[in-house]
Amino acid sequence: MKMRIYILLYLTLVVTNITAQVIDVPFKQATSVKYVLSEELKDAQFKKVVVDYNDIIYVLTDKGLFRDYNEDELSKDLFYRLLDKKKPVDICVQEGTGYLYYLYADQFLTNAHAGTIYEYFPKNEYRRILVNEQDQVMLLGNKKGALYQRTKKMANLKLPDGVLVEAYVHDQKFYYLTTDAIYVLENMDWKLLHKGGNLTALAFRNNTIFVGSTDGFYAVDSFKGQTVLDRNNKLPVPNISEMLQVGNQLWFGSENGAFLQEPDRFRYFAGRRWLDHNKVVDITSDSRGDLYFLTPTGLNKVKYITQTLAEKTKRIEDDIRKYHMRFGWVNEFRYGSPGDLKTAHSMDNDNDGLWTSLYLGSQAFKYAVTGEELAKRYVWESFECYERLLTVNPLKGFPARTFERRGIIVDDDAWRPSQEKDWDWKGTTSTDEYIAYLFVVSVMDKFIVKTAAEKQRITNFIDAIMTHIIENDYYFVDVDGKPTRWGRWNPEYVNWYPDYVSDRKLNSAHLIAGLQLAYHLTGKKIYKTEAFRLMEDHGYLENIMIPMKTMRRTLEYVHMGDVMGDSWNHSDDEMSFLTYWVLHKFPFNDELKQKYEAVARDHWELERPEKDGLWELCTYGVSGDIDMDSTLFFLREFNVDLDRYSTKNSHRKDLEFLPQNFRGQTTTNVLYPGEREMHRHNTNPFVLDQGGSQMSRLAGDEYLLPYWMARYYKLIE
Questions:
Q1: Torsion-angle region of residue 462: left (phi > 0), alpha (psi -120 to 50) or beta?
Q2: Res. 4: pLDDT tops 60
């Protein structure tokens, strides 16, 4: 019996660590195109957008008819002489054929059929035109309507009661929507199909009519108008202004953005990432399934691109090399004018080392996967920046945060003149940078270093830093002879915190990881001796093993003016998962290695709702645990446009909000990245409203490291 139990337990453990490899197949991702408007469109009133069967986009305005040029420009349609001088009252595309029809004050016409379809009528009688697949032309005015068969008038039509909201054609039938009813034209008469209230829009799918209102939507059948789908008002914005069925997708427009119904949620398109203005005036689509949203001030396109993860990765890598390299650091850049790449300039960051470690790490894993020499070159180019951190300042073994040419940074106490002419360096170095040094050297030792000289370079780097820490009583000591605010690993500081403040756990893990790595590289006994002294005499191993669920809110611990433990620290999450990977690669013994695996698994379980690819891959590299659905969600949904836009989601009625909690998780499910501000791993992904102004752009290293780790671990092929 015992043997059977042991066998079952063994099989269970093995099965939990088996993960099927995912083939990198093409997938679709939404991207944004914002049309550049010609000068003539300044202050224009945008009324309607249609797409003809040639995928030409036409926009009706009070200044005439405009069309698209070069995919992202909108200018006056001058193609048909004489017509270019006239202003249509309305336009439409014919059901089935996609031919463009024009309605003018005194006639309707089309340029299809060799221009033979045109008909005159008394001025200003009609304001809407629709054409069905049978060449029946419906004209609607304020007081009456008319039906033509091509140019032959079939009937004058009395309008239904109520103010026209919109008219539609579907399956050769004409529909008339008022605020409280849907009518269908049968035998030259408008027949009441459905009575409702506060109706705003219709969309059609086969024999089902989706009915939009000021309070959500529902559906009726097209035969008797009976309800076939109950009202759903749990929408991003329940007050619907536009609806459109595109294939099997149902799209909505509102006064506050657009959204798409998906099987288990809604995808929200709002803010400047997607729209120049949140009020949606009209929606249409083209033959490729791309969407066009007309607003009071412009035209916006949601363009679907088909790509593999490998293709997406190549695009991000190329952009980094072209636009985000500063000396070898990988930087977010700043725009002079929102979104204008020609005005962009580099900018230093307190955590140049941390952000660059993600890029350097990605290229190290890439080299391990592909053997591509260029990736190896990029690693060494960036590592030169890390080495210079030790030489650009006069302090022994103290790494600067970053460096810059003199004259750029002024009036900042953290910046100091270097002994190197024409350069400044930044002090106050923190644990964020420290873990970057450990991670960078760890991946280089494992994947990049091939010669004794290369080994000596990374060894000297870590040895100098760890010696500085030991000789300064486990602090980073700056030019003023005092410990920096956050560069602190001394037991008196670390154990001042209770178990439920994460700094106790994290700083213990940081230090042991550094001592393990230094011992692995140098063989110096002091590193091993000190590590065990700290674990045995000061409880650093016990600190590392503290369960993450122990963490809770407290206001009692204040460090240099900062309340420690008042909220969940997502920077600590980022540092933790990188630290776990380093801890696990260079343990002093197998017992410690197993403990580190348990630590990573414990933290990962708590973080799973975030669906962060880096958490997933770092954990897999330590304990073998991973949620591949979350990993693919992170990689495939990671934004193509890395500009930082403002976002707002707190008003949404489709979200399931959680009570206020210490982790700051506001909703049951994390939002799509396209609905959030572009942010790094150290930001809470559950923040609903953020204030980016499209004045900066991230590099994409946040994506590259988990992607290449997934490739290295053969999770994606």
A1: alpha
A2: no
Q: What is the DSSP string of 586-642?
A: S-SSHHHHHHHHHHHHHHHHHHGGG--HHHHHHHHHHH----HHHHHHHHHHS-S--
How far CA 472 is from CA of 41, 505, 527, in Å, comes to 66, 21, 14
Give the global pTM: 0.95
CA–CA distance, 346 with 17 (Å, rounded to integer): 43
* H-only helix segments in 43-145: none
Domain extents in the chain: 29-307, 309-639+649-713
H-state helical runs in 660-699:
none
User: Rounded distance, CA 670 to CA 613, Å?
Assistant: 13
**CATH, domain 309-639+649-713, list 1.50.10, 1.10.4030, 1.10.8, 1.10.10:** 1.50.10
Compute CA distances 105 → 117, 139, 553, whole Å: 16, 11, 68
Residue 412, pLDDT above cutoff 80: yes
Domain covering 29-307 in this structure, CATH number: 2.130.10.10
Helix, strand or coil, per DSSP, at residue 484: strand
| pLDDT tens per residue, range 287-304 | 999 999 999 999 999 999
Residue-wise pLDDT for 496-523, tens only, equals 999 999 999 999 999 999 999 999 999 9
Please provide the size of the chain in residues.
Answer: 717
Which helix (H) or strand (E) covers residue 271, if one does? none
Averaged pLDDT score across all residues of the chain: 96
73-76 and 36-37 beta bridge pairing: parallel
